[in-house]
Every structure is written in structure tokens, then in C-alpha cells.
Design goal:
7-stranded mixed beta sheet, 6-stranded parallel beta sheet, 24% strand, 398 residues, globular, alpha/beta, 22 strands, single chain
Length: 398
């Protein structure tokens, strides 16, 4: 998914729900507000049956509990999960309980940016062996519908995607996944980088959809994790001038270090017109061939429509708008600006992995915070509030 936490006003309170500790030491529920008074280690059994799991029960109700270790079926592998990154969509489900028509109606294991080690093979698995370190593409499609057959499996109506209701995610010690959606990591690629293949694949897909190529001028709206991986992908694909905007100076400083041609601060509280005029003045006469909106709010979508070069492409990745938006459609139509949506990725994990393996992309600067799975609630608080200049928060499961 995308960086929905980039401009997040929901950071002041995790609600009035009191801390509850379960006497059986199997499950613990607490609000982040009271986190520091909870001994999260009590939720872990610490033996061969330990499958400590982070489960979202509803709005502001994230719990750690033990679940049975699953068994792999045909063409599946049992994975010992190692690293899981927190995505903006995870935060959105925690805060709102839904994204669009995907609504958390029953307990759901959270998390989808993951890497792991193959623990056991199911029947028919030939592409992996026990002990392989893998990155996990979190969606498994039907492989039979028209979309799957033409390679657009991200549009499969039967897609089962981690931590998208009602499908469980992989923020857990043990997890079963389709073997053909697990990618073996070369020895020189870390498990952290393996987990970050997920957001990187979003950036790769966005740049492909936008038609980024050698010599492109690109404008990226939003310098959260998705904006930053899109930046380094566009640079690797040959873009020569990359402008990037954000509300937060720290993120823009990181963007500059990662190769942005120019960073542009958007002032919180500016009207849509003021913000658009500000960015236009910073860019000057050379409007971008491709604009990639990694925020998805009314202001940024309007900005993309008005500032993209005539005949250019606006690619919308972010899904920040929680309701209908009012847009200057005539402006885009009269200048033949193509408007393209981005939904996850398809056939992009291999390309993302190749970029890292070849040293063309360095994801390590994005990882700012690390937590153990027992510290899941504190990790989510850090990711939501941005405490300590957080960009990507990584959870260590084993």
C-alpha cells in the first residue's frame, strides 16, 4: 500500500480504552497511551509453540496473542518471519478500522511488508528449500482470471492480500504463504531490505505506470516512505530532475540526500491555490513530464493536474483522501494530461530485487527505528506520530 501516515492529524490520543492484562499470559491488550506500564514479554511463551501474533480487533484495539503455528498446504511454505515494516495502511486500519470498502469486521493479523526464512515445504514446492531467506510478495492471486492471464494480477478479483480484510497479515512469528510469491534473497541482501521490497515495488510500479525514462523530469508529491522509494526508483530509471514536496523538513532533507534535484516545502494551512502557486514558483518554467502523487489528498491531486506538463502523466499512488474531492478536471483534459491510478504492483518484485542486488538502490537509510515483536504497540505509536523523525519502523519477529 502507500504512505497514508505522511500527513496524519490523528496523533494526539490512542483513545480512552483502559489497559487490560489477561491472567493466562497468552494475550495482552493495551492502548499505546498506557504502553510503558505493560510488560509485553508476558505475551510470549518462548518455546517451540511460540507464535506470538499482532492482531487488530478494531479501531485503536491492537493486541498481542498466541496463535497456533499453521501448516503449509499445496504450493505453500511455512515461514519463520524475521522482519516486518509498518506501512501507512497498517496505521490507517488501526486509526480508522477501514480503508475505502475494506473494513475490519473481525480480528485480523496486521502487517504485510515482510521477509522470512523457509521453515517447512508444502507439497509440490520446487522453487525453494528449507533455510532459504525470502522476501514475501503479500498478495496471492487466483492465477486463472483474465487479469492474471494478462499479467495484471494486482487487479484479480480473488486476490488474497495480507492484512486486507478479511485476510490475515504476517506480523507473527510463523506464517504460511504461496511459494511462488516468495523470492529468494541473495546472500548480500539483508532481511530488512527483503521486507522493504514491498514498498519499493510500489515505487517501481508507479514509475512504470508514469512512463519514467532516461531524461524525464519528475515531480513527487509527498516524501514519506513511498515518496522516497519512488524517488530512488525514478533516479535509477534515468530521471534527471526530480522535484519532491512535503510538509516535514526532515523528510525533505532525507530526500535531498537520496538524490532529489530540488526539495519543496509545502506550508501546512495553505489553501490549495496557495500551495499550487508555491510549488509552481519553485519549479519554474520546466513543468514535469511525470507527476507521482504519493499522498492522495485533494490538494496534491489538484497540484498534479495543474502542474504536470501538457501531454504528461499524473500517477496517483496515495489514498489519503477519505471522501470525495473536487478537482479541476477541465484543466487536465484540455491539456491531455493522462491520469493513471496505481494499485499495489504486478510483476515488480523481481525488478525491485534486481535494483537492490545490483547496488542501484540503497534502502537502508529509510530504516530509522527497530522494535521487537513484543514491542509492537510502541512501534505503531512511533510510526503514527513520527516520533524521533521516524520514516520506516521495522519489527523483528524472531
Amino acid at each position: 500500500m502507500c504512505g497514508l501516515v505522511d500527513d496524519n492529524p490523528y496523533i494526539l490520543s490512542f483513545g480512552p480504552r483502559p489497559r487490560t492484562e489477561y491472567n493466562d499470559n497468552i494475550s495482552i491488550r493495551c492502548t499505546v497511551k498506557n504502553l510503558r506500564r505493560v510488560n509485553m514479554a508476558n505475551a510470549s511463551i518462548n518455546n517451540e509453540n511460540d507464535n506470538l501474533t499482532s492482531v487488530l480487533y478494531g479501531v485503536r484495539d491492537l493486541r498481542l496473542e498466541q496463535r497456533p503455528i499453521p501448516k503449509p498446504g499445496h504450493n505453500e511454505v511455512l515461514l519463520k518471519i524475521q522482519r516486518v515494516g509498518i506501512c501507512g495502511s497498517d496505521i490507517h486500519y488501526l486509526v480508522h478500522g477501514a480503508i475505502g470498502h475494506y473494513i475490519v469486521k473481525e480480528p485480523m493479523v496486521i502487517g504485510h511488508e515482510a521477509s522470512g526464512i523457509v521453515e517447512k515445504l508444502g507439497e509440490g514446492v520446487k522453487n525453494l528449500k528449507v533455510g532459504d531467506r525470502v522476501a514475501i510478495e503479500p498478495g496471492a492471486s487466483c492465477r486463472m482470471c483474465q487479469f492474471c492471464k494478462i499479467g495484471s494480477y494486482n487487479l484479480c478479483p480473488e486476490m488474497k492480500f495480507c492484512a486486507t480484510p478479511p485476510i490475515d497479515g504476517n506480523l507473527t512469528r510463523y506464517y504460511v504463504h504461496a511459494a511462488d510469491f516468495c523470492y529468494k534473497l541473495p546472500d548480500h541482501i539483508s532481511l530488512e531490505e527483503g521486507a522493504l521490497l514491498e514498498p519499493l515495488s510500489v515505487g517501481v510500479h508507479a514509475c512504470k505506470r508514469g512512463g519514467v525514462k532516461v531524461g524525464s523530469t519528475v515531480l513527487i508529491l509527498g516524501a514519506g516512505p513511498i515518496g522516497l522509494v519512488t524517488l530512488i526508483t525514478a533516479k535509477a530509471m534515468g530521471a534527471t530532475k526530480i522535484y519532491i514536496t512535503d510538509l516535514v523538513e526532515f523528510r525533505l532533507n532525507i530526500a535531498k540526500e537520496m538524490g532529489a534535484y530540488k526539495t519543496i516545502t509545502v506550508n501546512r494551512g495553505d489553501s490549495d491555490e496557495q500551495a499550487i502557486e508555491n510549488v509552481k514558483n519553485e519549479i519554474g518554467d520546466e513543468l514535469p513530464d511525470v507527476t507521482i502523487d504519493c499522498s492522495g489528498f485533494q490538494q496534491t491531486i489538484k497540484m498534479g493536474m495543474e502542474l504536470t506538463k501538457s501531454g504528461g502523466v499524473l500517477t496517483i499512488v496515495g489514498m489519503g483522501a477519505s471522501s470525495d474531492v473536487k478537482l479541476p478536471l477541465f484543466n487536465a483534459l484540455s491539456r491531455e494530461v493522462d491520469i493513471r491510478g496505481v494499485f499495489r504492483y504486478a510483476n515488480d518484485y523481481q525488478d525491485a530485487l534486481a535494483l537492490i542486488a545490483a547496488g542501484q538502490i540503497n534502502l537502508k537509510p529509510l530504516i530509522t527505528h527497530n522494535f521487537k515483536i513484543e514491542e509492537t504497540l510502541e512501534a505503531f505509536k512511533t510510526a503514527e506520530t513520527g516520533a524521533g523523525n521516524a520514516i520506516k519502523v521495522m519489527i523483528h519477529c524472531n
